[in-house]
Amino acid sequence: MSEPIKNRYDFVLIFDVQDGNPNGDPDAGNLPRVDAETGHGLVTDVCLKRKVRNYVQMTKVRNGEPEPGFDIYVKEKAVLNEQHERAYRAIGAEDELKKEDKKRKGGERVDEARKWMCENFYDVRTFGAVMSTGVNCGQVRGPVQMTFGRSVDPIVTLEHCITRVAVTTTEKAQEQGGDNREMGRKNTVPYGLYVAHGFVSAHLAAQTGFSADDLALFWEALVNMFEHDRSAARGLMATRGLKVFKHATPLGNAPAHRLFERVRITRKDVCKPPRAFSDYNVTVDWSDLPAGVERIEML
Q1: CB 3.0–4.6 Å: which of 31, 45, 181, 293 could bond 289 by disulfide?
Q2: Backbone angles phi, psi at 218, to 5 degrees
Q3: Prediction pTM value
């Protein structure tokens, strides 16, 4: 792998949804997440990171197995404590797994185990992880952090009644006399344009080994993640913009919020509800950037 990155980055991710549910809320019957006070739509950072993980897991495969250094720690059906045990076996510390005292499991080998986890799991060295359950692999603060995605305008959440010409049990079929129909519900947003913000820390990258190659893969995942995450529930989703500000130094050369203010999104016609990306103007003021800040426009 290449050396850890030496520069700080701040970025703006713009994505949209049409006739779909970008991130259902299980506490609200899986309705699209909404800010209760303003009506703006929300997509959690966890949801976005999941799509990045899925993209890496799908693309970094060789002969059916993850490429070295690109395994995923938080993935479907994973047992996290078993991943910790893998680390201790890999560093030759199997004896630590046999200790009765859970608080002592790991002992003086925790730092070695943490390093192994960072080297082998892309999402650990990118997003960080709490790995102190079971045998202790420590905690990692990830160099890449993201905010919730928030819609530019308030969204409308719709609930649709749908039917299925089949039933699940023989009893239900007998009750209906052979009609065999079941009713269901589907929740969508007619259209929403969302904006999320992100940060890449060179200081934390030095601790986890997050490299320039890892960063390039992260940008690639953000641009393409919706292309490989299709489902009937999500409708039509797409990344519409990825605006990146690269700093000349590890600590940065300007406050992130000042750079984010340069990205402006406005409706072309405020008298009609937006129903497509073409209903918006997206502009970025790249002129007179602060000294030491470089423009990188991925999309």
Answers
A1: 293
A2: -65, -45
A3: 0.92
The predicted model gives 131-142 an average pLDDT of: 92
Tell me which residue of 87, 67, 79 sits closest to 217, measured CA to CA.
Answer: 67
Q: CB-based contacts of 59: which residues, under 8 Å, 6+ apart? A: none
How many Å separate Cα 36 from the centre of its chain? 23
Q: How far from 51 is each of 9, 43, 152, 195, 236, CA to CA, in Å? A: 20, 12, 21, 16, 15
Helices (H), the chain: 45-59, 80-90, 110-120, 122-127, 170-175, 202-208, 212-224, 256-260
End-to-end CA distance of the chain: 26
Long-range contacts at 228-231 (CB < 8 A, ≥ 24 apart): 228/54, 228/55, 228/58, 229/51, 229/54
pLDDT above 70 coverage of the chain, percent:
97
Question: Residues 171-188: what's their mean pLDDT?
Answer: 81
Do the beta carbons of residue 225 and residue 52 sit within 8 Å? yes
DSSP state of 174: H
Query: What is the per-residue pLDDT for 138?
Result: 93
Banded model confidence at residue 299, pLDDT cuts 50, 70, 90:
confident
* % of the chain exceeding 90 in pLDDT: 78
Distance of CA 172 to the CA centre of its chain: 40
pLDDT in tens, 48-58: 999 999 999 99
pLDDT at 106: 62
Q: What distance in Å separates the CA atoms of residue 298 and residue 296, rounded to the nearest whole number?
A: 6
Contacts of 251 (CB under 8 A, 6+ apart): 8, 202, 203
How many other CB atoms are found less than 10 A from the CB of residue 244? Answer: 21
- How far apart CA 98 and CA 79 sit, in angstroms, is 18
